[in-house]
Amino acid sequence: MFADLHLHSRFSDGTFTPEELVAHARRHGLSALALTDHDSVEGCEPMRTACAVHGLEFIPGTELTAEHNGAEVHILGYFIDVTHPRLLAELARFQRARQNRIREMCARLQALNVPLQAETVFALAQCNSPGRPHVARSLVERGHCSTLDEAFERFLKRDRPAWVPKTRISAREAIALIHQAGGLAVLAHPVLNHADHLIPVLAAEGLDGLECFHTKHSEEATQRYLAMATQHGLLITGGSDCHGDSKGRPLIGSIKLPYAYVEALQTARRRRARRRSNAPVRPAPA
Ligand code: AMP
Ligand code: ZN
Ligand code: FE
Ligand code: FE
């Protein structure tokens, strides 16, 4: 049995619906899935339903953009309560910041004589958690760029003229928020954020796991992260980070995480829940 614990849907910058993700997962013989949309949990209920219909196990998740001393890191939350009020309030705040960022990126594009309207991007994105891929797709659709890569290279990559930094919480805050919502916090794709040196730091700040298996990790990187996870007492996770079919062949199916790692996550989650329920109840402030 195998799992994919890193998937994006149309509720953020993926192109598949939760139902389409489940259909692809079945074709690849996956039996457990986590949905990890950027700053959103809105796809979790439809994904849970689609998984239930086909007998797949579903783990509700999200991917939060955070920072440590100015460096961007992505923190995955697994087994979160998707009705948790504080989590939902924070996600709504991140989503508003994402929408304002789209407006600002379009203003910059307009100043560069690229007449892309924020409303055009929102109409294409059709979600509350829009990101740069939606701007890139709009630029291609409107004929301002011929490919998504060109859109990123010319305008959207960090320090390119239409790039706008994202509002970020600290990694410590992201980990705490996931814990409050009953979840486990995992550092996503350390290779992509050049975050190796942060692994011991974040482990000391309460991080539960490390995404060792990822499409962008070489065999050598994977082995290095497996060793670091063991060294720092972190759980091991993995996923394809599939964003749909926007880059040719969908990535789902490229990472098949052995199910024993999912069982280890479940054990850790139960242990954390027991600790929480045994914790002394603090008196309400007078
Ligand atoms: P955002 O959250 O708005 O900063 O957008 C980040 C997302 O953009 C990532 O999750 C990737 O899906 C995508 N992305 C980042 N850099 C590139 C790139 N150079 N080419 C294509 N997609 C990219
Ligand atoms: Zn993405
Ligand atoms: Fe990421
Ligand atoms: Fe991702």
Rounded to an integer in angstroms, the radius of gyration calculated over CA atoms is 19 Å
Task: Report the top-level CATH class of the domain at 2-83 and 182-278.
Answer: Alpha Beta
Structural class: alpha/beta
Mean pLDDT: 95
**CATH fold naming of the domain at 2-83 and 182-278:** TIM Barrel
- What's the count of strands? 9
**Sheet with the most strands?**
9 strands, mixed
Question: Helix and strand string, N-terminal first?
Answer: EHEHEEHHHHEHEHEHEEH
The CATH H-level homologous superfamily of the domain at 2-83 and 182-278: Metal-dependent hydrolases
Q: Indicate the proportion of strand residues.
A: 15-25%
Question: What's the short story on this structure?
Answer:
The chain is an alpha/beta fold. It contains ten helices and nine strands. Bound molecules: adenosine monophosphate, zinc ion and fe (iii) ion (2 copies).
Describe the structure.
With 286 residues, this protein is of the alpha/beta class. The chain has a domain at 2-83 and 182-278: Metal-dependent hydrolases (TIM Barrel). It is built from 10 helices and 9 strands. Strands 1, 2, 3, 4, 5, 6, 7, 8 and 9 form a 9-stranded mixed beta sheet that branches. α4 crosses α5 (132-141) and α5 (132-141) packs across α6 (148-156). The mean pLDDT is 95. Residues 63, 74, 188-189 line the site of one fe (iii) ion. Residues 8, 13, 38, 243 line the site of zinc ion (ZN).
Essential attributes:
286 residues, alpha/beta, TIM Barrel, nine-stranded mixed sheet, 10 helices, globular, binds adenosine monophosphate, binds zinc ion, binds fe (iii) ion
